């Protein structure tokens, strides 16, 4: 995340507000921890512009996320106006997901995160999983199965 700022205090407060916004498809995981936040720009007159990058351009949650971010930031003292922009670049990738988000997804939601081309470990037992379908409940997830604990696992990915 980069920040071009006039007022560091306002920028930090806006960042804290954005960090309270969870991804609507992944409760308990903020959009900051998912790596969607790219920029925060503030001005002397209290205008804040938030630049977000989508996990993929057709994500059905984009409007909801933008609305939630605007509502969170407009409540910050000193903010007069908020603009949320979806940026075309950089392209989101799975490496942007923080370790905190990976752990929460694994323990609370049984969602693994695929990094690279190797096998994805089961978030329950650590055994490599086997892909059952490239298509999961959303475009950025696949369905795997753990042969050891027999659990069906969603795997977040960027390809």
Spatial order of the strands in the main sheet?
1-4-5-6
Taking the alpha carbons of the first and last residues, their distance comes to 22 Å
Mean pLDDT: 91
How big a fraction of the residues is strand? 25-35%
Count of individual beta strands: 10
Q: How big is the Rg?
A: 17 Å
Could you name the ranges where pLDDT drops below 50 across 5 or more consecutive residues? none
**Fraction in helix:** 10-25%
Describe the fold and architecture.
With 159 residues, the protein is of the alpha/beta class. The protein has 2 domains: 2-86, 2-Layer Sandwich (GMP Synthetase, Chain A, domain 3); 94-156, no CATH class. The protein has 3 helices and 10 strands; from the N terminus they run βαββββαβαββββ. It has helices spanning 8-18, 62-74, 99-109; strands at 2-4, 22-23, 26-30, 37-42, 47-52, 81-86, 111-113, 129-133, 141-146, 152-156. The strands form 3 sheets. The chain has a 4-stranded mixed sheet with strand order 1-4-5-6, covered by helices on one side. α2 (62-74) links the parallel β5 and β6 (81-86). α1 (8-18) packs across α2. The model has no long low-confidence stretch (mean pLDDT 91).
Structure in a nutshell:
The protein is of the alpha/beta class and 159 residues long. Helix content is 22%, strand content 30%.
Task: Name its key features.
2 domains, alpha/beta, GMP Synthetase, Chain A, domain 3, four-stranded mixed β-sheet
How are the secondary structure elements laid out?
Blueprint: E1 2-4, H1 8-18, E2 22-23, E3 26-30, E4 37-42, E5 47-52, H2 62-74, E6 81-86, H3 99-109, E7 111-113, E8 129-133, E9 141-146, E10 152-156
Parallel strand pairs: 1-4, 5-6, 7-10
Antiparallel strand pairs: 2-3, 4-5, 8-9, 9-10
Helix pairs in contact: 1-2
């Amino acid at each position: 995340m980069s920040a071009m700022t006039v007022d560091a205090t306002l920028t930090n407060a806006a960042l804290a507000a954005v960090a309270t916004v969870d991804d609507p498809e992944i409760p308990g995981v903020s959009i900051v921890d998912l790596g969607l936040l790219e920029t925060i720009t503030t001005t002397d007159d209290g205008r804040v512009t938030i630049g977000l990058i989508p996990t993929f351009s057709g994500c059905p949650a984009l409007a909801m996320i933008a609305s939630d971010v605007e509502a969170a930031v407009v409540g910050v003292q000193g903010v007069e106006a908020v603009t949320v922009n979806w940026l075309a670049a950089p392209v989101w990738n799975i490496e942007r997901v923080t370790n905190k988000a990976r752990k929460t997804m694994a323990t609370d939601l049984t969602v693994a995160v695929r990094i690279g081309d190797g096998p994805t470990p089961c978030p329950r037992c650590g055994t490599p999983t086997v892909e059952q379908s490239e298509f999961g409940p959303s475009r950025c997830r696949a369905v795997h199965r753990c042969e050891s604990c027999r659990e069906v696992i969603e795997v977040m990915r960027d390809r």
